[in-house]
Automatic annotation (TrEMBL):
GO cellular component, one term: plasma membrane
Annotated source species: Methylacidiphilum kamchatkense Kam1
Protein name: Zinc metalloprotease
Cofactors that this protein relies on: Zn(2+)
Cofactor note: Binds 1 zinc ion per subunit.
Lineage: Bacteria, Pseudomonadati, Verrucomicrobiota, Methylacidiphilae, Methylacidiphilales
UniProt domain CBS: residue ranges: 239-295, 301-356
SMART domains given in the database record: CBS (SM00116)
Keywords linked to the UniProt accession: CBS domain, Cell membrane, Hydrolase, Membrane, Metal-binding, Metalloprotease, Protease, Repeat, Transmembrane, Transmembrane helix, Zinc
Length: 367
């Protein structure tokens, strides 16, 4: 996620903090300070918030553990003011799996709450729900309620909260992924509107949450649409078929010449009909800076790169393109180079597809 800083890692999962989280910390410090006028209270407020985020990390690790059970790894966890986000390598396709992964987070909070409740019952500590002083109240009671609130908040049926995914998982048992996502996103946006409206008259923090939920829902719906469209086609339908190749013995000057004369930035390097390398724009620039334009392609090309087959599903390659630093992937058919796949290609394909779908839905309304 943009605007995030890495603070460490647990079980090989990177933990990041989003800059808005620091806004929350300063907001809490200001609120505590203005309510009580003591620096000590402001610091305690921050301490409590940091402890709260430790609980959120545990919640996210709940998702990560459930995902791992279905052999899906977690790339990283980002802490935001409204909680955390565990970025899974992919969303489980099976609705039941998505349901279990989504429930696992709030389940951690419920288990923690039960555990705290047991300790409090044994120790005879009252569950003072109306404790007005979060700082000086009993720390166990505070964390008990924190976990209950976290579980409750995350179960709100709106993306990007777990409740949104749980709702999609439940809908997904009866309908396809795209329709389930659309309905779940609409429910989420309706809730976001309600939050925003209530926030106008009560707590402005609710408006911030409403914005998060609104954009989370539309992002989720768009992504589902893209994946659905791409899942219906293979690479061979959207790859570039007209392109230039270079030979390892060509000079960088030739690459410059072709780049200027065409729209192509990245070149497959072919020797005896075999794909041996890729000359990406970054390689070309680096080569020019270090060795000049008379250097050979062979000296500067990338030798380890991702290759896809023309019969591969477009959807899988789309995810692959998101996770590699290059914008072009060479496409082969039984080992022979037949095309290039670029991000622009996919964007164009989606643009035309959307235009055609709109025409269909418009003629549906006209008739
Ligand atoms: Zn969660």
């Amino acid at each position: 996620m943009k605007w995030s800083w890495r603070i460490g890692s647990i079980f090989g999962i990177q933990i990041y903090v989003h800059f808005t989280f620091f806004l929350l910390l300063s907001w809490i410090a200001v609120v505590y300070y203005s309510e009580r006028g003591s620096l000590e209270d402001a610091l305690l407020g921050i301490f409590f918030t940091l402890a709260l985020f430790f609980v959120i990390v545990l919640h996210e690790l709940g998702h990560a553990t459930a995902a791992r059970f279905f052999k899906i790894s977690t790339k990283d966890i980002t802490l935001l003011p409204i909680g955390g986000v565990a970025r899974l390598e992919k969303i489980p396709e099976d609705p039941i799996q998505e349901l279990i992964v989504a429930i696992a987070g709030p389940a951690v909070n419920i288990i923690l709450a039960l555990f705290l409740y047991l300790i409090m019952v044994i120790a005879g500590i009252p569950l003072d729900a109306k404790q007005p002083d979060m700082i000086h109240g009993n720390i166990l009671a505070q964390f008990f309620w924190t976990n209950i609130i976290l579980a409750g908040f995350n179960l709100i049926p709106a993306f990007p909260m777990d409740g949104g995914r749980i709702l999609r998982g439940l809908l997904g048992i009866k309908m396809d992924f795209l329709h389930a996502t659309r309905i779940a996103a609409s429910v989420g946006q309706t809730i976001a509107l309600a939050f925003g409206f209530i926030g106008l008259f009560t707590n402005p923090f609710l408006i911030l949450i409403a914005l998060f939920v609104w954009f989370g829902a539309s992002q989720e719906a768009n992504l589902a649409q893209v994946k659905f469209t791409l899942s219906k086609t293979t690479i061979s339908h959207l790859m570039l078929r007209e392109f230039h190749v270079l030979s390892p013995t060509d000079t960088l000057a030739k690459a410059i010449e072709i780049t200027l004369a065409t729209q192509q930035h990245d070149f497959p390097v072919v020797e005896n009909n075999k794909l041996v390398g890729m000359l990406y724009r970054a390689d070309l620039l680096m080569g020019l800076m270090q060795k000049g334009q008379d250097a050979l392609v062979d000296e500067v090309m990338t030798r380890e790169f991702v290759v896809v087959e023309s019969s591969d599903k477009a959807e899988e390659v789309f995810s692959k393109l998101q996770s590699i630093p290059y914008a072009t992937i060479p496409v082969t058919e039984k080992g022979e180079l037949v095309g290039l796949l670029t991000k622009e290609n996919i964007a164009e394909f989606l643009m035309f597809h959307t235009a055609m779908t709109e025409r269909k839905s418009r003629s549906f309304f006209e008739t």
